Amino acid sequence: MTPRPESEGDDYRAADKLRGCVALVTGGDSGIGRAVAILFAREGADVAIVYLDEHEDACATKQRIERLGQRCVIIAGDLGDPAFCEDAVSLTVEEFGKLDILINNAAEQHPQESLLEITPSQLERTFRTNIFAYFNTAREALKYMRPGGVIINTSSVTAYRGSAHLVDYASTKAAIIGFTRSLALNLADKEIRVNAVAPGPIWTPLIPSTFDEHEVAKFGSDVPLGRAGQPFEVAPAYVFLACADSSYMTGQVLHPNGGEVVNA
Questions:
Q1: Which of 53, 214, 221, 259 holds its CA 20 to 30 A away from the CA of 98?
Q2: How sure is the predictor about 1, in pLDDT bands with cuts at 50, 70 and 90?
Q3: Is 169 annotated as catalytic?
Q4: Model-level pTM?
Q5: What are 73-116's pLDDT values in tens digits?
Q6: Coil, strand, or helix at residue 73?
Q7: DSSP letters for 134-171
Q8: What is the pLDDT of residues 35-54, one digit of tens each?
Q9: Phi, psi of 176 (to 5 degrees)
Q10: Choosing from 51, 134, 160, 169, which is the catalytic residue?
Q11: Residue 48 CA to chain centroid, in angstroms?
């Protein structure tokens, strides 16, 4: 990618907000997930990264986390498989002894000009990765989470404004909002908080891998700030929701989206 996505910002000052915590980040090899994993490590957390098959990216992220003085384990597999969702959580707990924070972030998108072009296999694949995996991973994580645990789900601005060429993707991102709000209510008495982040146009590997050159060239130019955001500009929202600073928030959605107004 040119330019490369920026995973770390120069001005961020860590304050041990997650010291002693263990976090599992799906899609943590690159993009928003990588930025979140690194920022969590800067705040003192050990991190498990789940990814599909981008081994070089995952290893680079692991090395960065270890240079920050934190432990990291990388776990490769397909989150569309419920059995792998269970394995990812159990391997994390086996490695670190506990699980405090789950970041459901992995996603895929496949632009199509017409609903007629979305095949049943594409529809099922998008839903398996983008929302079924969130259910399956959270269900397994709850076997280990104690009061004070946190689940954060990555949605998207497309959940609120729709997307003409990402009908199935936008549908899954809207489902994530309903999942977040409902699970927050379900777990409130267990003192486990569930929130979401709905990013706008963020410069990640998902963009050039799924859009043509014309779309990539203008990506993010239609928001009030006039540009795509960088992953490091989104990651602090996850730190806030993961730490005690947001102790009175559950079932909520944060919107780092370049100034788009959404009906939240």
A1: 53
A2: low
A3: yes
A4: 0.94
A5: 999 999 999 999 999 999 999 999 999 999 999 999 999 999 99
A6: strand
A7: HHHHHHHHTTT--TT-EEEEE--THHHH--TT-HHHHH
A8: 999 999 999 999 999 999 99
A9: -65, -35
A10: 169
A11: 13
